[in-house]
Each structure stands twice: as C-alpha cells, then as structure tokens.
Specification:
Number of helices: 11
Radius of gyration: 20 Å
Largest sheet: 7 strands, mixed
Distance between the termini: 15 Å
Order of helices and strands: EEEHEEEHEEEEHHEHEHEHEHEHEHEHE
Number of strands: 18
Helix content: 25-40%
Length: about 350
C-alpha cells in the first residue's frame, strides 16, 4: 500500500489516497520515489489541455531507488538509483529510425495501461504520463528509467527527468545557441530557469528573462539572466532596445500562450530563431501574415522534451552539475508533500516561484 495523488477526471481536484501496487511484471521495476517535481504539464492534465486515460496517478518528473525487478530484468537491481523517463522511445517507429527519439510515436502508449488500484474501492488506475511519480512508490516499465548520475542527490536528480532536459535541450538542441549570441527566455518557471542556466553554459553574451512577476527577477538573475523584464504589451520593443535595436538572436518561449509566442517571435532579430517549449491549448491560435514571414526571415520551431535523448544527455548534464555550471537546487523554490500539490498548482497559475518539489 502506498500514498498517491489521483486525478479522477479532468477539472476535478487531485485526491491523495492509498493505492495497491502489484509486484513488478516481466519487464517492469518498482521504484521508491525520493522526490518528484510539479510541472506545468501536470497542471495541463488536470485542466484538460492535455489528456491521458483517467483515473490516473499524475507526476512525470522524479527520481528514486529500485526496490524490486520483474522477470527478465538484468540491467537493474534493487538499490539502484534511477531517474524516471516519462517518454521512452520504442526504437522502431519512423521517428526513432531518424534518430528523433523525442518524437517517438509509441512513447506514451503505457499511459493507457492499468498499473494499480485504489485500496478503498479497487478502482483501476492508469500511470499518468507512464511513470506515476506523484506517489511514494511506483511500478514502471524498465525502459522508463535511466541510471541516476553518481554523486548527485536524488532530490536534485528528480529535476533531470523533465525541467532540465527540456530547458537544456531547448537551448542546445532546438535553438542551438552559439557563444556570443543574445537570448531571451519567456517564463521563469522550472523549464525557464533551466533554459537560463543553459544559455549561460552555451556562452550567450546577453540573456534576457521575461515573466509576469516582478518577484522572479532575483531568481532569474541567479540563473544567469543579465536583464529582466516584466511582461507587458511593449515587451518585444523593450527586448529590441536592450539588444541595440536589432532584437535577440534566439527566443525560448516556456509559457504556451499565443500572445507570448507571438511576442517571442517579434522580439528576435531579422533571421532570429524562436523555440516554443510551452504547451498551449488548441484554442491558442497564433497568426502571421505572409509578407512578414518573408521579410523577417525568422524561424519558429516547436520543441518536444527539449529534443532530448535522456541516455545521451544525462551524462552531459551530470558533468555540468559536478563542474558547478548547472545548479539544480537553486531551481527549487518550495519543498512540499503530496498534500500540497493543489497549492503548488495555484502558485503556478499565479506566476509564483520556480519549481515545487515533492520530497518523500
């Protein structure tokens, strides 16, 4: 029996209750969670922007320790520390064949499985985005875990499962920021903070952070921002003013709103690059006219999971952490329990803080 946060249906509050986990089936492992991050994608699942089969245990960013393994698992053993990978690649679909594992067509098929039941009434539960990290323990497919980098506390390593891979990948894999370029990051949440640090690692000469909250300036500057703007109707003009009238070379949008995407695009120079990380609803329509697309020569790119491959990128991130270039702990602005997730969602909606981390 373990405690978990359940989404019964979209637009309903999370329910923290006891669930019964079965022993790992062949190809599965059981994980005792050390920590799990509260991501905006979890909020998007509760409000119906994104959909998964329900009832479900949410949570997809986490790290923990293997406690049991199912038949056929030889590369993992009880006591191994791991980071959860909510979007494992199948290795055989068209995208995987192209080496674009972050676009795997079968990455989320596990979300439709029944993996546990509620203790009180035996209700079947789905594992959210494959891994059900909003729980003291979880059972996942072995392909949904990667070895945790040695020497890094699991409570820090949890952030590697989504926020850091996404923010780092947006800067290094999608936007491909080069040394000396100017970068503007929209949204100073968990992913935005990772993007700011990653822009600094890439050697960006000027890093501008934009957020609706004036209170996040100190957090943004600690992550590497050289300038800070409170979002307004004139943000694009302010970015151009700060960049000598040209606009930024790169914009990273971590909000997922049509107006913010449009502003991010407008704040780049002629020939600039905008990477959209934020997940918006289908009602968020972004419009451009044909002449401005031709004239400005800008690039607008979607970015899934930072265009990252966890097996490839986690060792690289670990080196940055050990060298002091990437500070995971500074991204966490509150450490909470499962019961505090609704309050963390409220803070997210209000634009408060960076990453909330559930510590078990």
């Amino acid at each position: 029996m373990t405690r978990a946060a359940i989404l019964r249906a979209p637009h309903t509050p999370l329910e923290v209750t006891d669930i019964d986990l079965p022993a790992p089936a062949p190809g599965q492992v059981r994980i005792r969670l050390a920590a799990a991050g509260v991501c905006h994608s979890d909020l998007s699942l509760t409000n119906g922007t994104m959909r998964v089969p329900v009832p479900a245990v949410l949570g997809h960013e986490g790290a923990g320790t293997v406690t049991a393994v199912g038949e056929g698992i030889t590369h993992l053993a009880p006591g191994d520390d791991v980071v959860l990978n909510w979007a494992p690649s199948c290795g055989s679909c068209h995208a995987c064949g192209l080496g674009e594992v972050w676009l795997c067509a079968d990455a989320l098929t596990g979300s439709g499985d029944i993996y546990a039941r509620t203790t009180a009434d035996g209700t079947d539960l789905h594992p959210g985005l494959n891994v059900a990290a909003f729980a003291e323990e979880t059972v996942v497919a072995a392909k949904c875990v990667v070895p945790a980098p040695p020497g890094i506390p699991l409570t820090d390593a949890a952030l590697l499962g989504c926020a850091v891979l996404t923010g780092y990948g947006a800067v290094h894999h999608s936007a491909r920021v080069r040394e000396g370029e100017t970068v503007v990051v929209y949204g100073v949440g968990g992913v935005g903070l990772a993007a700011l640090q990653s822009a600094r690692i890439a050697g960006a000469a000027q890093i501008i952070a934009v957020d609706v909250s004036p209170a996040k300036e100190e957090l943004a500057r600690a992550a590497g921002a050289t300038d800070y703007l409170v979002a307004s109707d004139t943000t694009a003009k302010e970015v151009r003013r700060l960049t000598g009238g040209h606009g930024a070379d790169v914009a990273v949008e971590c909000v997922g709103r049509a107006a913010t995407i449009r502003t991010a695009w407008e704040s780049t120079r002629r020939g600039g690059r905008t990477t959209v990380v934020g997940i918006g609803g289908k009602d968020q329509q972004v419009t451009f006219n044909a002449l401005e697309i031709f004239h400005w020569g800008r690039t607008l790119t979607g970015c899934v999971y930072g265009n990252s491959d966890p097996a490839r990128d986690l060792p690289v991130l670990a080196e940055h952490i050990r060298a002091g270039r990437l500070d995971l702990a500074s991204m966490v602005t509150e450490r909470i329990t499962l019961d505090d997730i609704p309050a963390a969602f409220d803070n997210m909606l209000a634009g408060k803080g960076g990453r909330a981390l559930i510590v078990f």
